[in-house]
Request: fold
Amino acid sequence: MLEISNLALPLDAGLEGKQAEKLVRRAAARALNVAPSDIAEIRLLKRSVDARKKHDVHFVATLGVELAGGAQAEAAAIEAAALRKGAANMKAHRPYEPLQVPQIGDSPQAQNEPRPIVVGTGPAGLFCALYLARAGLRPLVVERGAAVDERMAAVDAFNAGEPLDPHTNIQYGEGGAGTFSDGKLTTNIKSPWAQHVLHLFVEAGAPEEILWQAKPHIGTDLLVDIVRNIRKQIEQAGGEVRFNTQFTALHFENGRLTQAEITRPQPTQTLRGRSTNCPESAQAEGRQAEAVQAEALQPASAKPEIGQAEILQSETAQLETPQSGVGKPETAKTEPVIELIPASRVVLACGHSARDTFELVRDAGVHMEQKPFSVGVRIEHPQQLINRSQYGKAADHPALGAADYKLSMHLRPQKGEEQGRGVYTFCMCPGGEVVCAASEPEGVVVNGMSRFARDGQNANSALLVGVGPEDFDGEDPLAGIKLQREMEQAAYRTAIAAGGEPYQAPAQTVGDFLAHRAGGPSKQVKPTYARGVAWCDLHECLPPFVARAMEQALPQLDRRLHGFADPQAVLTGVETRSSSPVRIVRGKNMQAQLAAAPVSGCVQDEVLSPAQLVPEPTSGGAQDQAQAKTQAAPESSAAANRQPADVAALEPETGLYPCGEGAGYAGGIMSAACDGLRVASALVESLRPE
Reply:
């Protein structure tokens, strides 16, 4: 098969039907300088929209073409194209090679270790666990939130005005925060894992078009089923997934991980005329915990059996069944169950909202560092305005769909700043909605999501301002979290002070924001934030430097996308969870480092300071890359990068693997999933026989 790239196609070629197929075939034949009848098969490999000239909006495609003359004819076509001036870019097509996962469950080291634990079921955790399960390691996956169906119900209830569930919400639960997003599968990283992530998504039920779209996306409505299918694949391959189970402690001995603590709610007992502290229940629960620990001690390759733990679950369930007798059942909630599980390898793949997890990791002595991130608001426009701005007269063509955008700029330094800040849009959601993304009491957080069809009336995007350690209060690695929390709580108070209900979001039109007046509702945009908004002055909940940067950037961004700073566009606050504010430093072998842990290649009593640890370059999304260009690293970060030549080769053997977005190594679904596969591969390699 030949591969022809940078081939211009008319918009009608993107429609369904035989006429569109003819247009594609003719374009391919012209590029090859052959008759259309000489082409045996055409396959779409990649397609994007070229809208640089509004009078000539068209597709640019990469096609796979098989000629009727076979391999000999295709080789001749490549030779002829090399001699022909102005010929299309052409080469032999290299088909996708499926991901090969080594089987190491029966290796001696795997046999002698507890099964690995994966913390979190976001993209990083799910893809890491899938790889480990297919390698034969039977990973235990723990997730503080609920499974996706229960999670959907909790999110819908909160949107409808019910109290916040701090354990299951838009941030926590199966699929991670990305489940309630646009489902973008784009990334700025050049990772060899990216093609495998896309094919694994398709294997789990994603539409095949994500394999050829230049900007693939799935949408929340499809992601729900896809993450459920990935979880089932993990279980079918021998893994176990426990929901409503929180990772709560790490235990190290001589610098090596030995135990992990997990906490789960004790089953609610429904009893008639019996004490809630009945000895039968306590004994069953105690025996169940013992069985769980015994199971964890099994080698990673041991086959799961219906054994003591399952019997004890049944025993506990019988105690929960209402007994016959007089009176109504009474429900009693008991203390959570804490389990200490033997662990030698834990993949920490929590999301960037797992603040309590960051605290326990810091308190365990794991090296962490402050990391630049971004904060701001969501901006909403009518989707038709964005379509017209991007596509001109072609805006209504049925092959195009809802238009997106991506804007960024570097501001001049403001008073008291050594250099300017980056301001940019992020996670743009065509035809989407602004979502209620709070995960802590009395704090308002917004994010954006779209469904697969992207057919909503509004477009929304984050409008973010870069912040760095110089903006934080103190040297604590978690100081960025303090800034986030202060903004979220200020947004909650500001909305309440403006007459709003709990968890309504503060909102303001762009015109009123630039004029510093509270104002009122937009005449063109109906906010999509489900719990409603309170119209107020966003300057009351944004840090002054953030508000000033937005004021300076909005008119300039409008010159790049006409209508972006339309006075009736709506700003809804606050967006603080665009990326992680911390990085858990890891070595070349993907493992974290303790202050007093011996490192491979170092003397036994050597203790490394935080500044000696090499932070692996992040594979974050656009927000981290934009900040890297527009913000100078503070002295603490600069010192961390001035390393002796041999430090980059150090390989700590702690058994703790920081992974994904929460750990500071990703910025979006795609890069997080890639990092999950990358970390899983490193873990598997460490168990392979030498």
In short: Residues 183 and 227 are 12 Å apart (CA to CA). The longest strand covers residues 39-50. The two ends are 40 Å apart (CA to CA).
